[in-house]
Design a protein that fits this description.
two-stranded antiparallel sheet; 98 residues; 4 helices
Length: 98
């Protein structure tokens, strides 16, 4: 896996995590509409590279804000994926009880 793939993976994990407050979860980021493959192919390489660079910079900024290393973010993503369904079930149960 190259650096771009790793960054995208970690960024996806960070952006898709849930914030738990007041017994409920709120999605941090909304899903962006999909762009067709034919439209993606028309994007010039220098624009793609700039977008990758911006994504890496934003990921680094966000990890610094969270005081988290890349390896910690990977570990967090792994734990989150393994427990996300259970947390959602628990939150549903708590919301019904309150």
């Amino acid at each position: 896996m190259d650096e771009g793939d790793t960054s995208a993976s970690i960024k996806g994990e960070i952006l898709s995590r849930y914030v738990f407050s007041v017994g409920r979860s709120e999605k941090i980021a909304e899903v962006v509409d999909q762009v067709s493959d034919s439209l993606k192919e028309k994007v010039p390489d220098h624009i793609r590279e700039k977008a990758r660079q911006m994504a890496r910079q934003e990921l680094q900024r966000r990890l610094e804000e969270l005081d988290m290393s890349v390896s910690e973010a990977r570990g967090y993503g792994t734990l989150l994926a393994a427990t996300q369904a259970h947390m959602a079930s628990l939150l549903d149960l708590l919301e019904r009880e309150s």
